[in-house]
Specification:
2 copies of one chain form a homodimer. Chain A is of the alpha+beta class and 324 residues long. Chain A is built from 11 helices and 12 strands. In chain A, helix 4 packs across helix 5.
Amino acid sequence: MGEFDLIARHFTRPVRRAVLGVGDDCALLAPTPGMQLAISSDMLVEGRHFFADVDPEALGHKALAVNLSDLAACGARPLAFTLALSLPRVDDPWLAGFARGMWALADAHGCELIGGDTTQGPLNICITVLGEVPTGQALLRSGARPGDDIYVSSTLGDARLALEALLGHITLPPDLLARARQRLERPTPRVALGLALRGVASSAMDLSDGLLGDLSHILKASGVGAQIDTHSTSNLIAVSAYPESARAQFDPEFIRQCTLAGGDDYELAFTAPPAQRDAVAAASRTSGTPVTRIGTVLAERGLQLVDAQGQPVDNRYASFDHFR
Amino acid sequence: MGEFDLIARHFTRPVRRAVLGVGDDCALLAPTPGMQLAISSDMLVEGRHFFADVDPEALGHKALAVNLSDLAACGARPLAFTLALSLPRVDDPWLAGFARGMWALADAHGCELIGGDTTQGPLNICITVLGEVPTGQALLRSGARPGDDIYVSSTLGDARLALEALLGHITLPPDLLARARQRLERPTPRVALGLALRGVASSAMDLSDGLLGDLSHILKASGVGAQIDTHSTSNLIAVSAYPESARAQFDPEFIRQCTLAGGDDYELAFTAPPAQRDAVAAASRTSGTPVTRIGTVLAERGLQLVDAQGQPVDNRYASFDHFR
């Protein structure tokens, strides 16, 4: 099977929303009047972002999910994406699985594949996603103000928990491993929450490298600091819902590392003024996405961690940096 | 130097046209009313699209050039691009060179870097480019009609000539090698010609895999065939301008292979009705890009090659397929 057969078989469908999809030099998209385009690119590399033996369907899901997560973080509605794929060889069953995972998520969000590239080389997946947001309503990193509440969506740390287990560093009960692995391999982009937070949140971003590292980008962009309650964040890992016996095997320090700097969560971290607490709760309800208040924005720069009693916790949690 | 320093140092500049550039979850772009967006992605892989020891400045140029070439083929004006980069390690002088080549071409076309991704892995460059074109005016592959003239811009085959020399398959005089290598490593996206051909050309595409293979996409999309004069195409390689002594060393068959199926030319192939010959000549003049008429669109499917005397030439010229 050659390059064009591969594209025709796995990656070509008629477009409905776009003017022109796969098959010409460019795709064509007609933007909705009054909307701004939100654009983001993410690249996934074998051995760095996923294991070589990962289920291709999960990988197809994740490659698109991490991009949709960026749109969610801006409060943008997904429109379309391009897929550039470097493959060591044409492996038809693998491609079919990858495409199945990708299309399922794309269809769930009404996001169309409009173009891309395929080439031979080390396995590498680069997706660029396009969404739209009403002019001036995008959720940015720069809007956090002193006194704002800090929230995260859903859970934290499970992806890291699964990674540690898959690397053989820890052992998890099978049901916990299955649940954590699902979070690592099939993250849920919080698109509905992002849309519901337009006009409610003062800033937002998605968590890919770890809560503290990612949050520091909001703080820097907004020129503020923050205090984070590590008791509330430690309760956001799946293991915390397990009986005492399962939980006792984990060092609280390890749990903090997973939840504060675990990476690969693809949850939203966002800020909102206390006056918006009811609106945040409503956004959580309408989007079907739990949110938890984990701290407060401070005027003074820096990131302070406190425990359940409000006592300082030493910040030794390093987030992920691709070149460190 | 970590990931964020790398981005800040080499790949961050204030944007003028975009609403928001590098540094948030998404970039924001405000499309011009009445325009459609043209979008294309191209991925370049070390060892497949370029040699490991290629001049990084040339590589930065080429990575963007092949994407701008897709916009040119649609008659779209470049607006912005995202850059996703997988790097084995942080090599500051290499990155500085790559960035220099990329920015020079981006500035020449008023095309802004608005976002992207950096990660560690085998060297891989994925650029997604966005342009705009007035609604309904994009040059597509599907518009060729029987009787239309077929043209190509500038030269053909020099990139392949350089590749054969760099692979040690042939020896070229130093000045010819330098000239051919320039075409391989620093292709010129024909953006100005693409813009000038709006409303003039009936179809267009850019030549990346070789004239005959790429032209077959136009023929298939338009439901037509074509006759190509291989005498005119053989005259489009740089070597043809050289004295008889330099030219004599090349088998005419080899010259045909380079010009008809060489790949990496990044010239435009386009069709236009004979009534538009003056308009094509004017587009060539205003864009400063030579064009040559090389054949005719036929109602009957298939691609016929003829020599200077109109005699059939056997078509044995295979174009580039990444998976064959």
